Amino acid sequence: MMGTQIIMRRELASYFTTPLAYIFIVIFLMMSGVFTFYLGRFFERGQADLISFFNFIPWLYLILVPAIAMRLWSEERKSGTIELLMTLPITVVQAVLGKFLAAWLFIGVALMLTFPVWVTVNYLGEPDNGVILASYLGSWLMAGGFLAIGSCVSAATKSQVVAFILTLVICFVFVAAGFPMVLDAFTEWAPLWLIDGISSLSFLTHFDAVSRGVIDLRDLLYFLIMTVCWLTATTIVINIKKAD
Amino acid sequence: MKNIMHSKTGLIVILAIFIVFSLLSARLFNGVRFDLTEGQLYTLTDETQKILSELDSPVTLKLYFSEKATAELPGLRTYAHRIKELLDEYATLADGKLTVSFVDPIPFSEEEDEASAAGLQGVPVGIRGDEIFFGLVGTNDSDGEEVISFFQPDKEQFVEYELTKLIYNLSNPELPVVGIISGVNINGGFDYMTQQRQPAWVVMQQMEDLFDVRPLAEDIDAIDAEVDILLLVHPKDLSEQTLFAIDQFVMKGGRTLVFVDPFAEADIPPAPMAATASRRSDLSPLFAEWGIALQDAHIVGDFINSLVVNMGGGRNPVRHIGLLGLDLGAFNDQDVVMAGLESINLSSVGILDTVEGATTQVVPLIQSSIESQPLEADRLKALQNPESLMESFTPTGKQYTLAARITGAANSAFPEGVEVEERQVVEEEPGVPEAEPVMVKRLLVPDVLKNDNINVIVVADTDILSDRLWVQVQQFFGQRVVSPWADNAGFLINALENLAGNEDLINIRSRGRFSRPFTKVEELRRHAEEQFLAQQQVLQEQLEQTEAKLLEMEQIRGGGDSAILSEEQALELARFQDEKIKIRKELRDVQHQLDRDIESLGTELKMINIFLVPLLLTLLLVLMRFIRKRVA
Asked: Where does the DUF7088 domain start and stop, copy by copy (chain B) (predicted)?
């Protein structure tokens, strides 16, 4: 556990030594503001909830999370520092977990910095803050899922650009799996359980369920399984590559 | 283990585990939820649990959901899944009294015909336009049937109420009896003005769905024992005999709902008396005992809750402070009767005062805002311009009670009984004095003199029930299509259901709150209007003065000996004309200003939300760089 903590601290600190982290956060905040107020017409809707804010979160993550995840391992592999990392008295699992937690906390900070929109909605009316809390929690869990995917992809390639694009594509598939136009392709031939299964693999299905204000054990489990499986895959990928 | 974690097989194993677990978790772990919503919207209420555990007769529910046809609609499927879970939970709680089954009505199947026959609504979807069904049919063992024709996902908050109500109604097939005494044509009637028959008010139709509604005759000795709830609408000039009957009904524990009015718009007097006839109803002898009084000849004027009315004929809409659109702020949210209601419209509402020394408890259900003042009811009789009510309007800062619930101990208003004069010759009765040939006097003696807990709700407006204040009625191929725009009927139904002793059900309704408007914006709009009104008045006066002066000068020019104005006068004239134009422009500006505050608030919030935190972060970054440089 100590190893995980050390890696996490080191990583977290490294985020704030370069302006990169700052740029990500600023872009994320400004885009979420623009989406909420212009595309989501938050003010014109006149309803005291944050639906117009949370609706765009999965799509914002599609850009933000791969950008953060791409440098998790690719950079280390490219610059060769991964060899150095592996000589330290920590296991691969600890390293994977430490890096993941640091990035996850970082996204948590970015999410928390959207607090003005929460203050705004409470100033304008009387929203159901339980629902908002659940939605924030759901957003953060979803970020964990995105990030675990990104971590695995990043471990598999030396190029950050490839890692970014590949992560984006995989995440997009997971977001879109619940969409009617995707399911359309299956309705003609696939059995019902398969279609239900595909839609239940989607981030959106579970995120929507949580953002109603109800935290269902199944939704929690989904995000948990998603994260754990992809992180395990990351470990395996690093092990294999190390052997190469 | 070591091998798997180091080989490509490991990746495949993980993939398999991932898929199997995600699919399984959707099927296992049913119903473990943490409900974080404010009203616990997604948790079955104690009331539902109570109703389910007290079910008398068995109820069968059949949920029709088109599985195959909705394959492309994951949103609807999720919702259907939730309904299924909910129904399973219901069945568990009902302890065997409730049977639930699920049916997939495939197109052209027997099940589909069954669903259509039961009155379920088929909704066409997809390219092929297959009809999908998502409804519920409930039956009991005495052939009773209740249907939810389609579960609309946007009404999810009310689904528990709908389901529980359906189950309750099936297990209690007998409808409560509502007896009505009405001084207005609530049940339709003949309109002498248009020479046409008027249809019954929409509230009657709504009541008939849920209650056994019976009109009662006036001048009766006693209210029929079968009546569960007595509904009095505009009880105007009731005879002592009827008052006595009502008094005894209440004393015997009968539940009563009263709508009185200082000025009932719906009570239209015959044309020649229109300007003078009283349109007031009261129940003062009984009210006095119940601990309340309807304020004499006053209606409430309430600026904050007032509505804007369209005057037609190209005139600007104007504010009518006697016409009230009340919302959550005016309602007593502690009382179940007001539960789940969002807006109620009232017109020329009376004021209920509590009587000093009353033994009853009077709890206000609806109150006016603090910007209200009692107005003379007579001013409405010949009201041309509703805006004129604003003249001399000075809010008293007091909130007035417009509707109240009365409970607690009360005495009969007729402890001595009532003498009734009748035309017919009646059989000998004790206490009847010497009778004239036709007129007979008879003494009605009260059975009950005191009740420790009466159950009455009084509303100081009858127009609340009239269609024009809450519903739009359209004729559509001979059918009446009603679309409500306020919760007036909901209020009536809530009150009746509550008085019928069905409190459990009402409590469930209270949980839904789907509209949460921006209260701040509404406040701003009102402030702007208030300001606008004051400013407009000042400007209007200035304009009138200027115009009067201009007229004066024109007259000097026209009528004077010298037809030509002196230079000084001409200058003056030009100045006044300029001023007139200026004032008119200002008036227009003031009107534009109305929305400006709200718009600028919106812009400010946009800017804050988009730029504030990024800006602060930038500052922080610069500051940190600076400090680091200094240290280095």
From this structure: 38-138
Is the Cβ–Cβ distance between B183 and B233 less than 8 Å? yes
Across the interface, do A236 and B36 touch by the CB < 8 Å criterion? no
Identity of residue B142: S
**How far, in Å, CA of B481 to CA of B474, rounded?**
5
- Going by the DSSP 8-state scheme, the letter that residue A114 receives in this structure is T
Yes or no: say if A62 and A155 are a contact pair by the CB < 8 Å rule.
Answer: no
pLDDT higher at B369 or B507: B369
Contact A148, A231 (CB under 8 A): yes
CA distance A23 to A20: 5
Q: Which of chain A's residues have a Cβ under 8 Å away from the Cβ of B613?
A: 29, 113-116
Give residue-wise pLDDT tens across range A127-158: 889 889 999 999 999 999 999 999 999 999 98
Choose among A25, A34, A216: nearest Cβ to B610. A34
Q: Band of the pLDDT at B69, cuts 50, 70, 90?
A: confident
* Cα separation, B112 vs B123, whole angstroms: 12
Specify the pairing of strand B372-376 against strand B343-347.
Answer: unpaired
Tell how strand B318-327 and strand B343-347 pair up: antiparallel
Integer Cα distance of B321 and B337 in angstroms? 25
Say what angle helices A217-243 and A57-79 make with each other, to 10 degrees: 20
- What is the rounded distance in angstroms from the CA atom of residue B206 to the CA atom of residue B202? 6
Alpha helix positions (H), chain A: 2-15, 19-34, 42-45, 51-54, 57-79, 81-87, 92-112, 115-124, 129-156, 160-176, 180-187, 192-200, 203-211, 217-243
Q: Are A208 and A199 in contact (CB under 8 A)?
A: no
Residue A47 β-bridge partners: B517
**pLDDT class for B209, splitting at 50, 70, 90?**
confident
Asked if B100 contacts B88 with a C-beta cutoff of 8 angstroms, the reply is yes
Per residue in A93-111, pLDDT (tens digit) is 899 999 999 999 999 999 9
**Phi, psi for B410 (deg, rounded to 5):** -145, 155
- Residue B274 pLDDT grade (very low, low, confident, very high; cuts 50, 70, 90): low
Give the relative orientation of helices B202-210 and B488-499 as an angle to the nearest 10 degrees. 30
Measured from the Cβ of residue B154, the count of other Cβ atoms closer than 10 Å reads 8
For B589, residues 6+ apart whose C-beta sits below 8 A from its C-beta are none
Select the residue from A26, A121, A133 to test the B interface by mutation, using most B Cβ atoms within 10 A: A26
Give the residue among B341, B344, B377 at the shortest CA–CA distance from B469.
B344
Kindly indicate the confidence band of residue B2, based on its pLDDT and cuts at 50, 70 and 90.
low
pLDDT of the residue at B502: 62
Q: Which helix (H) or strand (E) holds B536?
A: helix B519-559
- DSSP conformation class of B434: P
Q: How far apart are CA B576 and CA B587, in angstroms?
A: 16
55-94 in chain A: CB under 8 A from chain B: none
**For residue B253, what pLDDT band results from cuts at 50, 70 and 90?**
confident
List A residues 110-139 in contact with B (Cβ-Cβ < 8 A).
113-117, 120, 123-131, 133-134
Which pLDDT does position B219 carry in this prediction?
80
Query: CA geometry: angle at B392 spanning B386 and B396, to 5°?
Result: 105
**What pLDDT band is residue B596 in, cutting at 50, 70 and 90?**
confident
The C-alpha atoms of residue A227 and residue B1 are separated, in whole angstroms, by 20
B358, B456 contact by CB (below 8 A): no
User: Whole-model pTM?
Assistant: 0.62
Which ipTM value was assigned to this complex?
A: 0.84
Q: Which helix (H) or strand (E) holds B62?
A: strand B59-65
A43: contact with B, CB 8 A cutoff: yes
